[in-house]
Structure formats: C-alpha cells, structure tokens
Amino acid sequence: MREKGRGMETLTVDRKAKMKLPHQPVPIRPAAERIRDFEEVVLSYTAEQAIAEANRCILCPEAKCREACPLHNDIPGAMWLISQGDFIGAANKYRETSIFPEICGRVCPQERLCEGACVLGKRGEPVALGALERFVADYQRQTQGLPLPPVAPATGNLVAVVGSGPAGLAVAEELTKRGHEVVVYEAWPEPGGLLLYGIPSFKLPKRLVHEKIAYLKRLGVRFMTNTRIGQGLTVDDLFSAGFDAVFLGTGANVDAKLKAPGVDLKGIYQASDFLVRANVDHSLLPEAMRRPVEVGGRVAVVGGGDTAMDCLRTAIRLGAKEVTCVYRRTEAEMPGCHKERVRAIEEGVHFEYLVAPVRFIGDAAGHVRQMECQRMQLGEPDKSGRPRPVPIEGSNFLMDVDTVILALGYWPDPLVSETTPGLEVHDWGLITADAETGATSRPGVFAGGDNVTGPDLVSTAVAAGLRAARAVDQYLKTLP
Ligand SMILES: Cc1cc2nc3c(=O)[nH]c(=O)nc-3n(C[C@H](O)[C@H](O)[C@H](O)COP(=O)(O)OP(=O)(O)OC[C@H]3O[C@@H](n4cnc5c(N)ncnc54)[C@H](O)[C@@H]3O)c2cc1C
Prior knowledge:
The protein is α/β, with parallel strands linked by helices. It folds into 3 domains: 2-144, Fumarate Reductase Iron-sulfur Protein, Chain B, domain 2, CATH 1.10.1060; 158-253 and 412-477, FAD/NAD(P)-binding domain; 255-409, 3-Layer(bba) Sandwich (FAD/NAD(P)-binding domain), CATH 3.50.50. The chain is 34% helix and 18% strand. The chain is built from 19 helices and 20 strands. The strands form 6 sheets. A 5-stranded parallel sheet has the order 5-4-3-6-20. α10 links the parallel β3 (158-162) and β4 (181-185). The radius of gyration is 23 Å and the shape is globular. Bound molecules: flavin-adenine dinucleotide. Flavin-adenine dinucleotide is lined by residues 107-108, 162-168, 185-188, 193-194, 198-199, 203, 228-230, 249-251, 253, 275, 306-307, 310, 413, 415-416, 449-450, 455-459, 461. The site of flavin-adenine dinucleotide (FAD) has 40 residues, from α10, α15, α17 and α19.
C-alpha cells in the first residue's frame, strides 16, 4: 500500500509483513541486581534493536498513538525516521512538540497513552514507543548535546514563572524562544520540581534534569531558587516589580495526611519527605532536611499509586527485608502504572489488598512497632467512580512494622492562592484556570500542571505549560 503525508516522502508500507516482525524486548536489569543500587532499572536499546522495533510500526493513517499522547508527538513520523536510521531526525521530530523526550520516554505510563492506543497491541506487543523515544533523545544528547533552538528578537516583555516543575519549565522554554525575558522562582534549592524532588533516580536519572536546566540557562532563562512566592515576595509584588505576566506552575506537593492515633510516632514518614531524603543528593536539600531516612527491617507503605510504588522500591533499595504495600481497594482499582507494579513485585514487594490502617502502636521510645489494620470490602462507587472501600467489622489485625510510609495523595499548597487577591480556587485548593489557555480569574496570571488538574503526569504538565505559553504570548501582544 502506498502512503503519503506526515512529512514523509511517498513510501510503500507492507503492513502484513511488518506485523510479522518480532518485537524487540526492552532491556531491563535483573531484579536481584537492580535492588542493590539506585541506578536506572530500564536500559537502552542498541541502534540495531531500535531500527528493528521501529520497523514494526505499520504507520497506520489513524495514528491513534499521536492522539493518545498528551503532547500529540508525531510518533509515526518518528518511527519512520528511526526505521531509516535517522535518529537525530527522529529526536528533532519529538522536540517539535515536546521539551522532554528523554524524560517522557522514561516516565510516561505509555501503556495507557501511546502504546495503549497502538493497533499492534490488540493482537500482540505494541511497538515499544517509550523505549524508542528515549533511545533517540539519548542518542542526540550523547552525540550533539541538547541543541539550542533559534530565539526570536527580544520583545522587552518580562514574565515570572512560579515553580520549576515540568509545567513551569515548558512555559519558560517556550516564552524565551518567543523573545520574552523569563525569570523562574522556585522554593527548593534547585530547579526541576518533582522531576528532581520526587521521581526516584532508578526511574529517572537526576543528571537528565540537571542537563535540561543547564540548557535552559544557556537559552537565557534565569532561575531564582530558595524563593517561595507568597512568603515575603507575593504575586502582586512581582507585578509591582515590573513583570508583565505571571505563570503559576506550583504543582500539588502537600502530602494528604492520615488521621489515626499514633500517626506521629517515630518511624512514620510522609511519602515526599521519605523520597526526597532517600533519593536526592543532600547537598540539594535545605539544611534542616539533610538527615538520612532510617529504614527498619519491616516496612509498610500505605497507598496504591505511583508514589507508593516509588516508596516501596526505595525501601527495598535501602535494605528493608519485608516490604508490604497496604491498599484499601483491590489491584483492579489501583491508580498507578501497571508496569511499575510488576517491577515492584519482581523486586520482592508484597501486596495486602482491601486493608487500611486504623492506628499505630509504639514502643517505650515512641517508635512505631505495630500497625493495627482493618479489612475492607468493596461497596458502591464513590465520586471517583471506583467502588468505595467499606470496613468489615471485627476484622482488625496487627501487623509488625519498623517503618511506615504514608503515600495517600497530594494537595496544592494554598500559599499562593491565599496571598493573591482575586485568584479563584475550587476543590481542595486547585486553581481555577481555562483548560485551553491556563488563564485564571486574575488578568495576567496563568496557571497549569498539577495545581490545576490535581496530581497527574509529567507529559500533561508539559502540555498545559506549552498551551499556557502560547496564551501568555498572545496576552503580552495586547499590552500597551
Ligand atoms: C513520587 C512521584 C513519582 C511520580 N512518578 C511519575 C512518573 O513516573 N511519570 C509521570 O508522568 N509522572 C509522575 N509523577 C507525577 C509528576 O511528577 C507530576 O505530575 C508533575 O511533576 C507535575 O508537574 P508540575 O510542573 O505541575 O508540578 P511539580 O513538578 O510539582 O513542580 C512544582 C514546583 O513548584 C514549586 N513551588 C510550589 N509552590 C511554590 C511557591 N509558592 N513559590 C515557588 N515555588 C513553588 C515546587 O517546589 C515545585 O518545584 C510522580 C509524582 C510523584 C510525587
């Protein structure tokens, strides 16, 4: 069959033959080896494997993968280029729509995005789109570095970005390319948001985040770290200081708390505190946080999302002997990424479904030693559409524990909304913003990422940032 389009020259696609090509398994380190360090778990394809896997893409005209990608990357276009051995061309294809192919290729839950939409997945293995995106982006980084794009002539406009996670970085890059001057304000000592202070290095090596920040600095973005907007300097102060627009990319970084007797005992951690202190170089932490986490032999992690999986796998790497995930629904309702759960099981994590903690019991020194739990059954669906966990009376039991990590979800920090008059928020403090433009109730203030949607994904935060950047650019053109 002859096909045209997507920037590809006219080409002949023999779909039947392609569908018979064998899938190239993505290389992964054996569990027994990888639990001994914090190095990356998934390895890279070789050039030959990448070409062979990309060749499996049947370049279907519907390109459902592209539709399913929050950034709408031209995936078939990239697959064709990889199959021709043009790795740099493919990397540039991703960079037309994404600022982070080396990161999204690693951390996106492809099974429910691009790979989940791949037609080959109906009868067998989908094309390994994530591994291929990562391969070409890494190939380009390693052979050319991150190429600097052309920058438009200076407009004289000044934009403040609050928060340096994927949403804020996307806005900063896009507006700088359009000739605006951008200053990013970040509360942590280093920029990167959850890419640096959340996602563990066995999923995302920190050097990729540092490289991206160095690239943005070369591009002209300025970073003001250790600066928490709302504490001292407010959004109104930024406007008074001469900024023409403000983008809020403050994320959702406040841990949801559990109300249960004994929750303040020693040895009980909130997920963020645990992950940051266990995974981030202590020179990048504020003074007060530079203490190692102490992990005992028996660790329980309460929660079932990606953060819980990261805590479980971090605890294993820190030497815990028995690591148990305690989740109040069943595996079918778990919100996280399936492949991360499989990797946790391979690494020795044990799962207790339909169980919730009710209280924590400490020893004489005030350290947690037992967790009293109650068994649950599934009831009617709640607001999220998932069956509600209903406690079973008389089912309480004790679990011996030395360390408990609570990974129950996140809320946005209310500081910015509380110190910005006229900024509308709704459920749980999420900022009310237009889905397409990120415009908020305050003229000149835009928002996007987890602080608007609630905890979501790197790719959706980048997509929101890029949409908002285009809207900020338009807004700046309307200014006198
Ligand atoms: C443990 C963990 C693992 C995850 N794993 C994955 C994964 O594998 N794949 C995936 O796609 N997603 C994953 N996510 C989700 C993903 O990291 C987030 O959806 C994404 O980072 C949101 O981007 P953001 O820019 O909106 O916010 P963030 O990345 O949270 O960045 C917000 C930044 O704003 C700063 N900030 C907040 N308030 C202020 C203020 N007042 N002044 C100055 N700065 C401020 C914060 O310090 C932070 O640096 C994970 C999340 C966690 C917690």
